[in-house]
Design goal:
Elements: E1 2-3, H1 12-23, E2 30-34, H2 41-53, H3 55-58, E3 67-68, H4 74-80, E4 87-90, H5 110-125, H6 141-153, E5 161-165, H7 173-184, E6 190-196, H8 204-207, E7 211-214, H9 220-231, H10 235-244, H11 249-257, H12 260-276, H13 281-292, H14 295-317, H15 329-337, H16 343-358, H17 363-378
Parallel strand pairs: 1-3, 2-6, 2-7, 4-5, 5-6
Helix pairs in contact: 6-7, 9-10, 9-11, 10-11, 12-14, 13-17, 14-15, 14-16, 16-17
The structure holds zinc ion.
Zinc ion binds at residues 54-56, 69-70, 72-73, 75-76.
Length: 388
C-alpha cells in the first residue's frame, strides 16, 4: 500500500515516522506534535486522520496495490470536508452562554456557530489555516465532557476514531483533568493527535502520556522551491517570502500572496526615517501609523521589521551571499552604516514590542518605545545621512 500525506509540506522525517507506525500497527493512543506555528503539525494530523479513517485502511482485503487515503470511499469523501463522524477537531473556543446546570448542551449564538463552521471550512480547504477564533481562549471542559459522553455510548466499535486537539497548551486545569481520564483509560480504537507550538505550557501530565514528535522549521531554500512548485509563485517573490517566513510554510505562502516585496518596503521606510534623524518626522509617522492600523497590521509590520533586520544581519556577515538581493540597495546602505551592530538585541527588542501589542499595550506607546530602543541599539554613534 502507498500512503499519501498530500497536504503536509516537507517534514519528510515526520511523514516516515507516522507511516512506519501506521503500517506496523503501532500507532500510539496519543501523539503530541510540537513545533513553531506554520510548520505543518495540524496538516500532518489531518493527513494522518484521513489515512486512518479511509475504509480501505480497515478492509481485510489482502490487496497490496492501493493508495491511502483512496479518495473514493464514502469515508474519504466525508473526511475531505473534515465532516467525518469519527473525526473530532477540538480547538480553543469562546465560553458559551451558561446553560442550565444539568444540561449537557452547549449554547452558542447563531453567529458564533456560523463562524465555527466557516473556520472549519477554511481549514478543510487549506490545512495550514490556524484554528484561531475571536475570543477563543481555551479548550472547553464542556467539549471534553461531551467527547467522553460520546465515547461511553459507543463503548465498543471496531471503527477507528480520531480526535485532534489543536493548541493542547490551552487545555486548562479542569478540562485537562477530564481529558487525562480519557488518556489514562483510552477507549478502544481511538487515536488522539495533539498539537502545540508552546511546548513549555503543555501540562506535564499530558506531555508524559503522549508520544512526542517534533517538527522543525523548514529551511528557506525548501520553502522557496515549494512556493514555486505548489503555488506557481515566480522566483523573486518566492525568494523573499521564503526568507521572511522564518521556517513556516503558512507564513511563506501568506507573504507570497501579499506581495512581500511591497510589504517589505514599509519596514524599510520606517528604518529610513529612523536613520535620517530629522527631529519629529519619525514621531509623527509613528502616530499616524498607530492610529490608522489595526493591531494585526502592526503585528505584521513588526514581523517584517525583524525579518528585515535579520536579512541585514546576514548581509552584513556575508555580502556575497546576497547578490540576489540587489533590489535592496537600501539594505546595503543600512548594513554599511551600522556594520557590526547588535542585531540580535535589536531583533529581540522588536519581538518584545510584538508581545506588548499582544498584551494590549497602547500601540503608539509600543512603537515609540521600540524606535527609541532601536536608535540606541543600532546607531548609538548618532544619526547620519548615509542611509537615504
Ligand atoms: Zn478511502
Amino acid at each position: 500500500m502507498k500512503i499519501k500525506f498530500p497536504h503536509l509540506v516537507e517534514q519528510r522525517r515526520i511523514t516516515e515516522t507516522l507511516i512506519r507506525a501506521f503500517k506496523s500497527h503501532r500507532l500510539p493512543h496519543a501523539f503530541l506534535f510540537l513545533g513553531q506555528d506554520g510548520v505543518g503539525k495540524e496538516a500532518a494530523a489531518l493527513d494522518l486522520a484521513r489515512v486512518i479513517l479511509c475504509s480501505k485502511a480497515n478492509a481485510e482485503s489482502g490487496a497490496i496495490d492501493f493508495e491511502l487515503p483512496c479518495e473514493q470511499c464514502p469515508d474519504c469523501v466525508q473526511s475531505a470536508n473534515l465532516k467525518h463522524p469519527n473525526l473530532k477537531i477540538l480547538f480553543p473556543l469562546p465560553k458559551p452562554k451558561a446553560g442550565k446546570e444539568d444540561e449537557e448542551t452547549i449554547n452558542y449564538t447563531a453567529a458564533q456557530e456560523k463562524a465555527f463552521e466557516e473556520l472549519l471550512a477554511a481549514k478543510a480547504k487549506e490545512y495550514y489555516t490556524p484554528l484561531h477564533l475571536w475570543g477563543g481562549q481555551e479548550i472547553l471542559l464542556e467539549h471534553i465532557r461531551s467527547l467522553r459522553h460520546e465515547f461511553s455510548l459507543t463503548s465498543f466499535n471496531s471503527r477507528w476514531r480520531v480526535v485532534i486537539i489543536s493548541q493542547a497548551d490551552r487545555l486548562r486545569l479542569e478540562a485537562a483533568n477530564a481529558f487525562l481520564k480519557l488518556l489514562e483509560e483510552p477507549p478502544p480504537s481511538v487515536v488522539f493527535l495533539l498539537t502545540s507550538s508552546r511546548e513549555s505550557r503543555v501540562l506535564p501530565t499530558i506531555f508524559s502520556r503522549c508520544q512526542i514528535l517534533r517538527f522543525h522549521p523548514i529551511p528557506a531554500d525548501r520553502l522557496k522551491e515549494q512556493l514555486q512548485r505548489r503555488l506557481s509563485i515566480s522566483s523573486e517573490p518566492a525568494l523573499i517570502s521564503s526568507r521572511l517566513a522564518n521556517g513556516s510554510w503558512w507564513s511563506a505562502r501568506q507573504w507570497a500572496e501579499e506581495n512581500a516585496v511591497a510589504e517589505m518596503e514599509k519596514a524599510v521606510v520606517l528604518m529610513r526615517l529612523l536613520v535620517s534623524g530629522e527631529p519629529g518626522v519619525l514621531e509623527v509617522e509613528i502616530d499616524k501609523l498607530s492610529a490608522a492600523s489595526s493591531s494585526d497590521q502592526l503585528t505584521k509590520l513588526l514581523t517584517l521589521l525583524s525579518s528585515w533586520l535579520r536579512e541585514v544581519q546576514r548581509y552584513d556577515a556575508d555580502p556575497s551571499h546576497y547578490a540576489d538581493l540587489a533590489q535592496y540597495p537600501s539594505m546595503k546602505k543600512f548594513a554599511a552604516y551600522c556594520s557590526g551592530a547588535h542585531y540580535d538585541t535589536a531583533i529581540a527588542a522588536v519581538e518584545e514590542a510584538r508581545l506588548d501589542l499582544e498584551r494590549n499595550v497602547l500601540p503608539a506607546l509600543v512603537l515609540h518605545r521600540l524606535f527609541d530602543n532601536l536608535q540606541t541599539i543600532l546607531f548609538n554613534q548618532g544619526t547620519s545621512v548615509l542611509f537615504r
